[in-house]
Structures are given as C-alpha cells and as structure tokens.
Amino acid sequence: MAGARCRTLYPFSGERHGQGLRFAAGELLTLLQVPDGGWWEGEKDDGLRGWFPASYVQLLELHPSPSLDMGNMDFPNGFLLPLKLLSIDTNWVCSDSTEPDITGFVV
C-alpha cells in the first residue's frame, strides 16, 4: 500500500508524537509505510514526512487501468483512455497527462 494516496479526515497536530505529521482536514498524503498498529507514515505534497493515526485518513480509490508496459498495450473495446494531447502524427500520440477531464481517446 506504500505509494497510495489518502485524504485526511480530521486535523492532526502531531505534537504528542515525536515524529508526528501535522495536517489539516482535507489534505492529500502519500503513504510511505503502513505497518500494523494503527500508525502510518506519510508525506505531504510539500515534502514534510511523519507519522499519524491511520483512522484520521481515508484511502483514495485506485481505479484499475490497463497494463501500460511496452510489451502489452491491449485495451478492452470501448475503453476510454484519458489524455492531454500535445501532438499527433500518423504513427504516434504524445501526451504529458492523464487528466480525465481534458480529452479522451476511445480504443
């Protein structure tokens, strides 16, 4: 689960924990460690790291996506692949984003 993202549900001061991560409700964190025991280590977008109660966050759902390894670019029929197009030529589509609200390419 390391690398997963979560949203904070409640503010946490981190004061009572020597390596606590202070945050407000509604912030996004990246999980670094999720050991048993109810305390997780995470990182804020500004690079600050620390520990916090697992019950103070909600894991964000990851939506399954097709395999994007170079050997397998098969998509199910009708799959909407979100892209931000930078350029198109007859042999290649160039994109720097997968933001679903920009444009889509139906395979």
Automatic annotation (TrEMBL):
<dbReference type="Pfam" id="PF14604">
    <property type="entry name" value="SH3_9"/>
</dbReference>
<keyword id="KW-0728">SH3 domain</keyword>
<protein>
    <recommendedName>
        <fullName>SH3 domain-containing protein</fullName>
    </recommendedName>
</protein>
<dbReference type="InterPro" id="IPR036028">
    <property type="entry name" value="SH3-like_dom_sf"/>
</dbReference>
<dbReference type="InterPro" id="IPR001452">
    <property type="entry name" value="SH3_domain"/>
</dbReference>
<feature type="domain" description="SH3">
    <location>
        <begin position="1"/>
        <end position="62"/>
    </location>
</feature>
